[in-house]
Amino acid sequence: MKFLRTLPQPIYSRRIFILFLLSTYLLITLIFYVNKLNPSLCNFNKICDVKEEVASENTREKFITYLPHSGLHNQRIALENAVFMAWALNRTLILPPLILGARFPFQAFDKLENYLNFLSKVKQKNCMNMKSKMNLTHCEKLRDSYTFYRWDQLFDFTFISRNVKIIHRDELISENLFLKFNMSNDEEQVWRKYGNAQKNSFYDSRMYGNIKSSNKFSNKHSILELRERDEGLLYFNSLFGSALIKLVIPRNIQFMKEIRESFIISNPTLLDITKRISDELGGRMNYLSAHARIGDGGFKKLSRKWIKNLINDIVEYFHEDSNLSNSADCKQNDSMTFSKMFYLASDAHSKDVQGLKPIIQLLPCALMLEDFKDLLIPMNELVNERDGLRMTKFFIPILDLMIAANGKHVFTMRYSTYSSYLKRYHQYLTQSV
Ligand SMILES: *[C@@H]1O[C@H](CO)[C@@H](O)[C@H](O)[C@H]1NC(C)=O
Ligand SMILES: *[C@@H]1O[C@H](CO)[C@@H](O)[C@H](O)[C@H]1NC(C)=O
Ligand SMILES: *[C@@H]1O[C@H](CO)[C@@H](O)[C@H](O)[C@H]1NC(C)=O
Ligand SMILES: *[C@@H]1O[C@H](CO)[C@@H](O)[C@H](O)[C@H]1NC(C)=O
Ligand SMILES: *[C@@H]1O[C@H](CO)[C@@H](O)[C@H](O)[C@H]1NC(C)=O
Hints:
Blueprint: H1 2-6, H2 9-37, H3 49-57, E1 63-66, H4 72-89, E2 92-95, E3 98-101, H5 109-125, H6 136-143, E4 146-149, H7 158-163, E5 166-168, H8 174-180, E6 190-193, E7 200-203, E8 219-222, H9 223-227, E9 233-236, E10 245-246, H10 250-262, H11 268-280, E11 288-292, H12 297-301, H13 303-317, E12 342-346, H14 357-362, E13 366-367, E14 383-384, E15 389-390, H15 392-405, E16 409-411, H16 417-431
Parallel strand pairs: 1-2, 1-9, 2-5, 6-9, 7-8, 7-10, 11-12, 11-16, 12-13
Antiparallel strand pairs: 3-4, 14-15
Helix pairs in contact: 4-10, 11-15, 15-16
The structure holds 2-acetamido-2-deoxy-beta-D-glucopyranose (5 copies).
One 2-acetamido-2-deoxy-beta-D-glucopyranose is lined by residues 135, 137-138.
C-alpha cells in the first residue's frame, strides 16, 4: 500500500488502464480462438452460443426414446446412456419399461420393434385370440416368462428426475407411442437411428461430424449436431454399450458419473430381505462374497476357466496361510479367527450344480440364496399389478446381487455386466457405511 502511494498518480493509473485494456483484449481474443478451435468447450448445460441459437428458434418439447433388449444390466446401461443423451439434447426421455425374466436379444430396428410390439400384445390380450401359430399352452408359457416393470419401482430416480424429464411407457406398442405424442410416424417427425454400439458412437467433441466415415460400419456422431435436429422424436434401435458415448468435457464426464453412481437399487422389500440375510451371514461388511456366472453363453462354455480364475483370486486373497477347506472354522461370530463366511451369488441356484463343485470344495462355508428360503417369503407379496405376476422369480438374481454386494470384499468375474454392477453397488455400500 505504501509503495503504491509513492507512485506518481497519473502515470500509475494510465499504465494500469493500458495494461487493463491490453489484457482484456488478449483475453477476449484468446477465448474467441479457443472457442473457434474447440467449440466443444461449450458445455451442454451451460448456455453458450450454439445452444442459445437453437433454443431461441425452437422451444417446443422434443423427445428421445429407444428400444430395450437383452438382460437387466444391458437395459440398465442403455438407460444410463439414454438419460445422458436426454440431458445433453434437452429432450424428454420416453422411457421403455424394464423387461425382467426372459431375455430378448438385440435385432435390427424393425424386427426388434415388431417383436416388442408382439410381446406387449401377448400381455394385453392375455393369450386370447392370438392370431398366430402358437397354441394356448405355448402362449401362456411365453406370457409368464417375462414381465414389464416400472424402473422407478426398483431403482432410485432422485438424481435423474431432478435433471431430466421422464415419461414412463408401460408397453412397447409402437402405434401407441406415436398416438400419445401426436406424431406421425414419418421422417419429418421421427429420426430413426439404426444399429447398435458396433455401428454407432456418440461424441461430445465437435471434431466428429454427422458425416458417415469411410468405414460404413462405424458412424461417429457429434452430440452437439444432434442437438440441432428438428425432428420431434429421436428413436434409437439400441442405446446399449458401456463405451457408446465418448466424453472429453469434464462437466459431461462428471454428469455421466453422477447418473451411474446414483442409480442404486431402492426397492424397500428387497432392501429389507437383504438386510436380514446379511445379518445371518454375520452382518453387513462382515462376510466375503463371490459371483459365479456359469449358466449362459460364453460363461457356460468357459465356465471351468472362469471358476478357476475366481478360485485363484480367492486363494490369493487369503495368502495361502489359511486352510480354506477347514470347515471347523465356519464360525459367524468368532471375532478371533479370520471370518471365512462366504456368500456365493450365482445363476446356478444350488450348490449341487456340477459347475459349482470346485468352488464349493474350496469354500465349504459358502452359503447361497437356497439356504435362506424362509427369509424370502415376504417377496411373495410383490406382484406386478400390470400383469398379475408374482415378482419373486424375476427378483431372485437382483436379490442375490444385493446380498453379495453387502460383503466386505467381492470376488467377481470379468466381462459380466452383472458383475460390474455388483462391484459398483458394493462400492456405493462401502462408502455409505
Ligand atoms: C429445453 O427444452 C424446452 C422444451 O422442452 C424449452 O422450453 C427450453 O427453452 C429448452 N432449453 C434450451 C436451453 O434449449
Ligand atoms: C402346444 O405347444 C406345446 C409346446 O410348444 C406342445 O408341447 C403341445 O403338444 C402343443 N399342444 C397342442 C394341442 O398342439
Ligand atoms: C394432437 O393433435 C391434434 C390435432 O392437431 C390436437 O387437436 C391435439 O390437441 C393434439 N394433442 C396433443 C396431446 O398434443
Ligand atoms: C485343510 O483342512 C482339511 C480339512 O480339515 C484337511 O483335510 C487338509 O489336509 C488341510 N490342508 C492343509 C494344506 O493343511
Ligand atoms: C451370532 O451372534 C448373534 C448376536 O450376537 C446371534 O443372534 C446369532 O445367533 C449368532 N450366530 C451364530 C451362528 O452363532
